[in-house]
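Dear U.,

For the methods section draft, I wanted the exact inputs and outputs in one place so we can describe them consistently. I've listed the two proteins in the order they'll appear in the manuscript figures. Please don't edit the token lines directly; just add comments below if something needs changing.

First protein:
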Amino acid sequence: MTIIIDPQASGIAGNMLIGAFVDLGADADELKEIMEKSAFEFGKIEVTFEKVSKHGIDSTFCHVEMLEHKHSINYGEFISKIENLDLDENVLETSIRIFRRIAEAESKVHGKTLDEVHFHEVGTSDAVADVIGSVYAFYSLGYDLQKVIGLPIAVGGGRVKTAHGTIPVPAPAVVEILKDANMVGGPVDSELATPTGSAIYMELCDEIKEFLPQIKAKNVGYGAGRKDFDHPNVLRIIESSDISESDNIDVIETNLDHLTGEEIGYLFDTLLDIGASDVSITPIIMKKNRQGSLLKVISKRERREDIINAIFKETGSLGIRIAPHMHRGIAKREFETKTFDINGKDYDVTFKIGYVNGEVISRRPEYEDLKRIAKETGLALREIEELVR
């Protein structure tokens, strides 16, 4: 399954994420309890969920009402209190990373160290509820085991009042948090992307794309924003079934006729080390019946120049052929580790599993694990392969 977080229409906020997760099946009663309990140390809150229609789109609104205001605290004190919450370790660690993203952005914007940063909006009880509620729902739905893709974020426009005065939209902290993400202004004169929502988005997404990739949507959840605009103020999250993916690659080739076997082996390892996706070397007959080798390297576009420079340096080649932007299909890949008892001792073996449309098409043990076990046990490699099937 692939998860698409789509904030193109109306930005992103913590409560919008939570609403969308509930729309997709997260337990609202459980979330209410977790959010209110976690935020209590920072101020009492009340969490409610309701179904609303945003310009004809049925969505879930998560309302977090602050019933008590406490003074802001510095980053160190804040994290210390978060660390003492009774939460699952994964939920806790992910939440702390999100708060660190926010604090580092505030630190850079205001020219302070982390220890000097005082949490205002981002340190109050409703923000704690938003972060922990989003992360808890994310894990409860099993999305941590899936690939998560983020689409461009609508950030709004105009100006907004904060604890630091009136500032432009998107707020400086939001711009800092969303570095390397795709942002677009508008479509309204209002703040659409909050620091909290932006930090959660950046932490949960494995990849950020400009457009929706080829998918087969299975379930869609909508989380409603608080404000009403002339467009649906909702965040969309899509669950899609696994499909084969595709990407653009470069195929880089050159002929070799003067390198020794050792030099070719060194070149092979060097190219993989600097980021080649695959390297192959094929014996060929060259002009004047000379024996040689064809070096073929598959490379991501961003690694192309490094790979070409390495080939020139290591081979002295006078010419390299490049077939740019070739299209390749790739199956979804996951890794699974299993433990096997071999000669009375437990050994971990990692398997690479390939999926197309949710169906397993291959399941192979990693060679390095098999080699390690063979060396330690003295058994033949083929015997280890039989034992872990």
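Second protein (the one for the lower panel):
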Amino acid sequence: MNQFVGITMGDPAGIGPEVSLKAIDARPEYQQSVLIYGSYGVLQYYHQLLHLKTPLAVISSPSEFRPGHINIISVTDLEIGKDIEIGKVSPVAGDAAYQYIARAISDAMEGRIQVVTTAPLNKEALHKGGHNFDGHTEIFATLTGTKHYTMMLWSQNMSVVHVSTHCSLREACDRAKKSRVLECIHLAHDAMKRLGLGRPHVAVAGLNPHSGEHGLFGREEIEEIIPAVEEARAEGLNVDGPVPPDTVFLKAYNGIYDIVVAMYHDQGHIPMKMMAFDTGVNVTLGLPIIRTSVDHGTAFDIAGKGIAKEDSMFSAIDLGIRFAKGICLSSSDNK
């Protein structure tokens, strides 16, 4: 039985349609198992613009998949110029992006596809379209009924999970609680295990400069982070911390740690974007389904110009397949 990857093409006014098509067209193996949830009219426009040779096929379900084609489940009927304008924020595009995700999640929950890989959406358009979520992560958590989850950024050289993401820096400090830090340690450890590491080495970053310098620059490490690390160690996990945030990512890059638990959005995102902007992958951990994503935005400034790079889409699809294969192996081992 094929293991299908469903790409949600993201905001139709951004580069999502382009990188989705380019990725499948470039790799014949994707033409055997990767499909797109989107709008046929938009994808047809880009197919012609990019002069792609792999034919399009509109299907109503993954069970109708046609190998050797770019398979499309057309969730909404949109056309460039008529319904949306390339590179412009619009409620129509924001709602469409949400509908692609909702359909893909439904199919994944029913087992029709094994991986959902998302192209970027625009948060302003999403809100204007009537969907008040901070981003993909929160949509997936809500539609799958998941309460304990986190964002992971993955690259070949380093991986990071986040205690908090889309909130103010002031609120991020308040969210750095023992229970949440411990939860993220577990999610990070489990993710690395699923990717084949026998005993992952997890680093927990400090929140404050120098990890608080024994309370001189803040007490969050003493009161919240250290107790979480100690409890994880007592459970047998290989975890260090709090490691000063100005050195922990270099240590991870040099192979000392397999994954870092970052305390807030920019602490984890800045080093990852510096190292792997075109190839990094965003993963939502804790879901009952597999979700990976490109680690870049809608890039409205270059949308429609045919110059968007599909490298991050390659990485996102491939990592999703790795997770799916890991699940299959563990399932058979437990039988």
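Candidate sentences for the figure legend, describing the second protein: DSSP finds eleven helices and twelve strands in the chain. Residues 89 and 125 are 5 Å apart (CA to CA).

Thanks,
Y.
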